[in-house]
């Protein structure tokens, strides 16, 4: 299988529960939490740890690469092309100030996923796709404890993006099991969460509840 074909398969895999790791200095504890989330049905995992130094990030990302392969789940690295290359991740995610899709693609090649945060700006999503992004993320849709001052996005934005863009759409920001269904109905392919899974006493159970939202939306 060629890398381009592999990337197309990965792009189709950007659906369902998209978990983003919490800032966790204890690698063993991080792996414990992530394993539970994967058991609960996480389909995509993004490694993000803004508090860690380069040595810890490499250690954690490498361990998560092994774990995600065990579960056949895509691993995305947040804002670090070199780290994505080092651990042979399936792709990376770019924020608004994290560089261009073109530069990331030049370094990662055609067979890796590149996702872009587009906040509440559809024009930014169009430009990201024009440059070769494989998926785009919008948010924050609800009040987020991780980014309380984030730009506000609406379900109507998802509906318009669904009409105009052919790539997977990821919704993020304050998403819970209770409010997530309306975003799926509006066109989101994946729901990205941190706190609603990793800050719960039952991580596996919380992930399963999110996974059930996608099962309920499938045609009989």
Which helices and strands, and how do they pair?
Blueprint: H1 3-12, E1 16-20, H2 27-39, E2 44-47, H3 54-70, E3 74-78, H4 81-86, E4 91-94, H5 101-108, E5 113-119, H6 122-131, E6 135-138, H7 155-164, E7 169-172, H8 177-186, E8 190-193, H9 195-198, H10 203-216
Parallel strand pairs: 1-2, 1-8, 2-3, 3-4, 4-5, 5-6, 6-7, 7-8
Helix pairs in contact: 2-3, 2-10, 8-10
How would you describe the overall organization of this protein?
The protein has 220 residues and is α/β, with parallel strands linked by helices. It has a single domain, classed as TIM Barrel, CATH 3.20.20.70. The protein has 10 helices and 8 strands. An 8-stranded parallel barrel has the order 1-2-3-4-5-6-7-8, surrounded by 7 helices. Strand 5 (113-119), helix 6 (122-131) and strand 6 (135-138) form a beta-alpha-beta unit. Helix 2 packs parallel to helix 10. The longest helix is centred in the first third of the chain and has 17 residues, at 54-70.
């Amino acid at each position: 299988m060629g890398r381009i074909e592999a990337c197309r398969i990965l792009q189709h895999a950007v659906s369902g529960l998209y978990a983003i790791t919490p800032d966790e200095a204890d690698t063993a504890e991080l792996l414990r939490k992530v394993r539970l989330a994967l058991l609960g049905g996480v389909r995509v995992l993004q490694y993000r740890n803004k508090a860690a130094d380069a040595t810890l990030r490499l250690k954690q990302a490498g361990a998560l690469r092994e774990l995600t392969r065990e579960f056949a789940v895509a691993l995305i690295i947040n804002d670090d092309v070199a780290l994505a290359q080092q651990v042979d991740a399936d792709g990376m995610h770019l924020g608004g100030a994290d560089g261009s899709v073109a530069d990331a693609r030049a370094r990662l090649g055609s067979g890796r996923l590149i996702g872009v945060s587009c906040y509440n700006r559809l024009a930014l999503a169009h430009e990201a796709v024009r440059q070769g992004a494989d998926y785009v993320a919008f948010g924050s849709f609800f009040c987020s404890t991780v980014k309380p001052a984030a730009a506000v996005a609406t379900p109507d934005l998802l509906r318009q993006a669904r009409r105009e863009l052919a790539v997977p759409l990821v919704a993020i920001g304050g998403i819970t099991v209770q409010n997530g269904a309306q975003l799926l109905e509006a066109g989101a392919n994946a729901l990205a969460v941190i706190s609603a899974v990793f800050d719960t006493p039952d991580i596996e159970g919380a992930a399963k509840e999110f996974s059930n939202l996608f099962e309920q939306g499938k045609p009989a």
